[in-house]
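WARN  no MSA supplied for this record, continuing single-sequence
INFO  ligand: fe (ii) ion
INFO  echoing inputs
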Amino acid sequence: MALTYADIEHLLATRGFHQYGREAVSQLEHALQCAQLAEQAGETAATTAAALLHDLGHLLAPSGGAAGQDDLHQYVALPFLRGLLPDAVLEPIRLHVDAKRYLCAVEPGYWEALSPASQHSLVLQGGPFSGPDAERFAGQPFAQEAIRLRRYDDHAKVPGLATPPLAHYLAITRALADEGMPVAPVGSLAHSSAAIAHPA
Ligand SMILES: [Fe+2]
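INFO  complex generated
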């Protein structure tokens, strides 16, 4: 069953006030900060939409997995988004946990810089990739987008940070379906200048 844009907006606007794991921001703040970092980096609309929606699985299944188990949230939203959004959005979402496992394997100092919550979830998610698994991961389509998304994800945890409103990023996401799969940076799309300290 595919979600509609209204469903996505409803999920983010109503369930987004849950705390983001063990971090000091809400799910909605985390999603907006992640999308903002992607937008500021000049990412395409598709990668920016992926940044906004990468943890939608947490909102669809707020209780997550059983205690001490991986909740596999990177997969939960995919069946609901397929048909609405292109692979350029879905694949970075699917791969964003594997991107953490990849970066932990190949980048000195990456693991040490993760938040304690992210280090904890890494263990449940299988830990750093082995050499061959890291190589396999990097060879997949959209692996580079997933790696960049991962970095935005890691930094999108700043309490009280001002971001554009949810409507701004929903408009970018919606334009993807209306216009096919644009590759232009989101700066070319209509931009709301209404930054808010406490996202609604
Ligand atoms: Fe996240």
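Residues 5-188 form a domain with the Hypothetical protein af1432 fold (CATH 1.10.3210.10).
INFO  checksum written, moving to next record
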